[in-house]
Structures are given as structure tokens and as C-alpha cells.
Amino acid sequence: MNFKSLALASAVVLGLSSCDKDVESTSLKLDDFSKAEVKIYAYADLDLSTVGLENAPTGTKLIISANYSDFNTNATGLYTDTITIGSNGIATTDLAVPTKGITYTITPVDFEANQTQITTSNASTVAKYWNATAKTVSLKPGQLDVVEITYEPSNYSDFVEMVSVTLYLNGEFNENLAGLETIPVSSITLIGTSGWSTIVTNLQNVTVDGNSYSKATVSVKKGEEISIVPFETLKTVVDNGVTTQKTYVYSALLGSFAKNEKGHSFNIGSGTEVIFPY
């Protein structure tokens, strides 16, 4: 081989080597590949007062990704593209697909949006953040694939949901009287299992269907067990035919409340006598 032929062969080898290096270290141009269409329906339960799910908000983002090595085994890196949900809750995109097929990952991006509450909640809307699990879709050239994504809501760490409850309370405070009596104190304290508490001072004595109650409307933590903190009061008792007053302690578990309630009656019982000294 003469010098000129050797130089030409070396140039070809160097050129091929350079081409392979480019394939391994740079992104591929995907325009020349066949296409497949992906149609994504995105949902979220944005309104609890209606049946079913709503469309995810317009502009919600989705990240589409695939390895470049799925197009060419010598290529490296990750192909990514961001698409957005339209006003109809749908995003449509055409994706490059090699002859052998390819798998893309669809990663939903979190978003923030208010959730409309049911009418039995204290708040009409609650601010929440929403997320969904990534999904994969395997495609062949010319294929149409439909993907559904449902976002789930999460509360912020400082969020406390309250419900309004009207309580009707009575108990045995006078053994000389028939039936149950109103609570003979000006206020009571309610406490939840998490340590949340509130003092109820707006007790009103009412009669409903011939029964006496202490009525109060309070806001309590939704879904949390609520109790009346033990309190002391004088109780009229009959002891061996003699009427007297003794100190008793009263408390009661009222239960939990998942929604606003306009009337919930409780008999807080007969109390427990306080024996002095204690």
C-alpha cells in the first residue's frame, strides 16, 4: 500500500471513530424515527360536593422520558419533554419510536389547587397539593395508547379541619327530680385525643320534647374523639332518706364527628362522688 492509500484508510478509521464517539456522548435526533401517539386523561377530585372526578387543572405538567439507549445502544443520556394538560383535561403527544418498540415514563408534576368541600364541612374550600404516581407506556410504531392519571390530594402539615356541632347535654344532678337535668356549671372543657381542647362557655338551658338540656354549638376537630374534661359540681342526693349535697365529678366521651351536626344529645351520667381528702 502506498503512502497516499495508507493516509486515506487512516482518515476513514478516524472518521468512524469520531462518529461513534458522537453517538455515545450526544443526544440523538429523533425526527427520523417513526411516531406513536399517546393520549393522557388527567383527573382529580377537586369538588367533593359532586359525584365523580374532575379534570386536572389546565396547565398541569407531565414529564415524558426515555433512555436514548433504547433508540441506539451506543447512545447515552435521557430524552425528556414536558407537556401540559389542556382545558379538557387531556394532553396529547407524538413520540418517536424505533422499530423494535420503546417504553416511555410519564411523570406527573405536583400542583396546588383548592378542593371544594361538602356542605357539611366548616370550610367551603381547602387548599391542598396534589400528586400522582408515574406511569409507563410501551409503544410500537404507529400505535395509539391511552393513559389515565388520577391525582390524589394531600393536606399541608399545618392544616386542621374543623366541623361545627350543636351539643345537647344533660345528666343526673338532682336525685329529687324526675328525669335528667341541665349541667349546673357555667362552662365545660372539651379535649381531643391529639391534645386539642376548647372551653365551652355559651351553655344555654333549653327544653326539647319535655327534656332539659344544656345546649352549645362548638367547632371541633374533624374525625377526632372528643371528651368532656372531668369537672366537679355539687349534686343533690338522697342518703338514707335525707336530702343533701355532695361533690361529684363528671366526664364523658362524646365520640368523633365527620361532618357538621345540628343536634347531638348526650347523657353524661350520674357522676362519681369525690371522697375527701383526695
Account of the 3D structure:
- It is built from one helix and 19 strands.
- The chain is mostly beta strands and 278 residues long.
- It has two domains: 121 residues, Immunoglobulin-like (Sandwich); 112 residues, Immunoglobulin-like, CATH 2.60.40.
- Strands 1, 2, 5, 7, 8 and 10 form a six-stranded mixed β-sheet that branches. A five-stranded antiparallel β-sheet has the order 13-12-16-17-19, with no helix packed on it.
- The relative contact order is 0.13.
Descriptive key words:
278 residues, mainly beta, Immunoglobulin-like, six-stranded mixed sheet, five-stranded antiparallel sheet, 1 helix, 19 strands
CATH architecture of the largest domain: Sandwich
What is the strand content?
Answer: over 45%
Flag low-confidence runs: 1-26
Structural class: mainly beta
Number of alpha- plus pi-helical segments:
1
Under CATH, the topology of the largest domain can be stated as: Immunoglobulin-like
Number of domains: 2
Helix content: under 10%
> What is the count of β-strands?
19
What is the assigned CATH homologous superfamily of the largest domain?
Immunoglobulins
Main β-sheet description: 6 strands, mixed
Compute the separation of the termini in Å: 115 Å
